[in-house]
Structures are given as structure tokens and as C-alpha cells.
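Can you make up a protein sequence with its C-alpha cells?

===
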Amino acid sequence: MAEEVVLAASGIHKRFAGVHALRGVDLEVRAGEVRALVGENGAGKSTLIKVLTGVHRPDEGSLLLRGGPVRFDGPAAAQAAGISTVYQEVNLVPSMTVAGNLYLGREPRKRGLVDFRGMRRRAGALLTDLGIDVDPGRRLSTLGLGVRQMVAVARAVDVDAGVVIMDEPTSSLEPREVDTLLALVRRLAERGVGVVFVSHRVDELYRVCDSVTVLRDGQVVHTGALAGLDRVRLVATMLGREVATVRAEGTTAFSGEHAAQDERDEPVLVATGLRRSTVLSGVDLTVRRGEVVGLGGLLGSGRSETVQALAGLQALDGGAVVVDGKPVRTGSPAAAIRAGVVLVPEDRKAEGIIPHLSVRENIVLAALPRLSRAGVVSRAKQDAVVGAFMRRLRIKAASPEQKVGELSGGNQQKVVLARWLAMAPRVLLLDEPTRGIDVGVKAEVQALVDELAEQGLGIVLVSSDLEELVAGADRVVVLRDGVSVSELAGGEVDADGVLSAIARAGKESG
């Protein structure tokens, strides 16, 4: 490329207590280039981003911005110099308008007062220029997550950014919103902005990125143009495995070899007629021991609401849940847990982990009553449980006492899984269990689901990844507008079958 290098990191090292997170990392971003930054969870991506944006200072190495050396005292200094960041979680103020969020902290003023009319006018021009169709006077809380993410991008660009770093910006978006965001990324590149794009979704990388830098264990293991690097080789490079192995094993780690189910087997869970105003209108679901039942359907079909209802998190207007032949009081998480029904939620950061507590405390949190006698918790029993699950799930942490909020997303997900597996559940509800985690940890989680099913656990799997749903499930129940409308089993469980069932449901309800 002939374009100038707008940002260059050279020989970056960063160490934390007991962890050498970055080991001599080099990275270049040119004007008008979209560079993918990829690697497994724990590879060093987040640490590198924090170095580039002034959150961390490098222990060794240098940063150049437009050819000149820079050293940032914090994120504000990096932003002032022209490096902006868009995070996976939208860091905006929902109660404020779009225009207010765009110019928060730098509002235009007239005679010493905020010029609200001028601010809306400037915001409208910016949004139009970026192709974002939204009223700058709308309150942010009234907009969908996809539009909020666009507003975050617009704010990042409007501070005269020469470089925009996007950290998993599409992880919570539906396909239509992803298309819009990726088009916006290309538009930024055409304007001469250098973009660093972090995503675990390989398809997105090939749609929007020009080049790629792969990190593994804190080191750069590949950098270059994305064109000509096929997807299997990219995944193999990220994992440090042979291409032939990745081709043979495919893109999921599901074996599809769960124990054969006899229709006469007693089910471990039966849900009938689950109803809740506006979200569930009649869901029926049966799960047998050793079986993985997938929930299929479009966004808003009621998949997450169904597993939340089974876990007691949704107060129901009607319906019944029976576990091992015994009715379970609905609307009560405690009753569901006592019955052996546990949920790994979709949003692990907001609903799963407690970030300021240690790995040990997060894992044993639900099991504390079982580990205590006369109100005294046995530390030896805690250590035994934590050690066993850290080994079994291969949780990467400096020690069990490390704060879970400091771990990578994939390791945080493993901690949430460990917490509920420590309860020896009968039914495991998984809501988007591999969202936002890298291909290596994704494969580990999928293999664990297989293992748990083989051990006789009943599993309900919610996944927006159709390939994952088809590869992992023995049966798929398709939902539409909060109603179970179709069930696929055996040879019917393939991508065409699920898509056809969803399409039929839409046609029948139309």
C-alpha cells in the first residue's frame, strides 16, 4: 500500500503479575486500511488495544502516530491525538439524545451556553455524511442496539480521528445491523481513516478487512494481506494447529454422537404452555437425559425468554415446568436451582460474572451452602472444587485469586460454566454460550457440551449460529413469536431443515 502509516507499534512488551501479556508486538495501520486483529482469548488483543489507547503504558517498545513518537497518559490523551475506540459494549448515555451523546463533553456553545440547536444541526450533518439514518433529537434509549453502535462509531470519528479501533463491535447485532455497520467501516476507510477491527467472526473479517495481524500467546505469528489467505489457514494460524487437522475437524467441535434417545425414556424436563404477556404465547418443550435440544428461530422469536422462564427468571402468566416428574414453581430462580435447572446467560458480563470477585469466589458462589457446615464455609472444599473445574475447563488465570474481570471473555465464560456445573445440575440451559469468544475456546465449550450430554445431562442450546445449532443439537424446536411451531429430529436437523421450518412458520403466521 502507498498510503502513509498513521499508527505504528514496535516491539511492545507488557507484563502483569505473573503474566507476560505482550512479547515484542509490532503493528502497522495505514490510512484507508482496515486491519483485522485476531487471536484466541488470552492472545493479547485486549492488552494491545489498551496500550494503543493509553489505558496501559508499554513496559518496552514505542508508538508512532503519523511518524512521530507518542506516549499517552490515558485514554483522553490518545483520543485527543486522534485514536478513538468503539467497544463491544456501547459506552453512551441512554437518557440523552443522539446529538447529546455525540458531543458529550465538547458541546458547542453560544454566549457561554450550550447551543442545542447548533449541536443538533452539526449532529445531523455528521450522521448524514456517514450514511446513518437517525434523528439526532431522538433519545438514545428509544433506539435499537445496532443504531446505538452506529452512534458510537460516529462519535469516535467526529473527534478528528485518524485511527478508529473497533473491539467486537458486531457481537450483539443482528445480521441486518451487521451489514450496516460493516458498510460504515468501509466508508470510514474510503475517507482515509485507518481502522483496527477485532472480531471472532471470520466471515466478517473477509467482508471488510484488507489485512490481518494474528496474535498467539502475546506474540505476532502472522501479519499480511487477507486476500490469498484462506479461512482454514487463518483459523489454523490462530489456534497453532495444522491446516489438515482443522479441515478434518471442521468449524465446530461437536461430535454429533450423543447417546441415542429412546422415545420411551422418561424426560428430565417437560415444559408445557409457557405464556408471558408479549413475549411467550405457548411454548412446549421436552428434554431427555443425554440429549441436546436446540431452540431455533429469528431474533425476537422467544428463544432467550424461554430459557429464562425455565430458569425461573421470567414470571409466567401460565404453563408448567416438570423436572424428573415433579412440578417446579415457576418464576423462582431458587426453585429452579433446587430442581437442578441452571442457566448460563447470554450476557456473561452483566448477568454472569461478578467482575470484582476472584475466580474462586465466582465459581463457588452458588455452591457455598453445600460447602459449609454450621454456617462455616470449608476453604479446603472450596479449593478442591475450584481446582477441579479450573483443570477440567482449562481456565487460564494467574491464580484462583485473580479477579475474574481481568480474564479474557472466553475464560470468563468458562468460569460461569464452572459455577453451575459445580451444582451437579440435571438440566443445563445455554443461551448463546460461544458468543464473543474465539474459535479455540469456542471449540472447547462445544466439546464440553458433548461430554456433558454423554454423561446424561439434559441440555437446551440457544444459538444464533445456525451451524453451531445444527451440529450440536439432537432435536431442534423452532419458535415464532413466542410459540413453538415446529420440531426437527434425526436427519431433519440440518441447515436447510431449520431454515425451511423458520420460513414456514413466518408464512403461516403472516
Remarks:
- The mean pLDDT is 85.
- Residues 252-340+425-510 form a domain with the Rossmann fold fold (CATH 3.40.50.300).
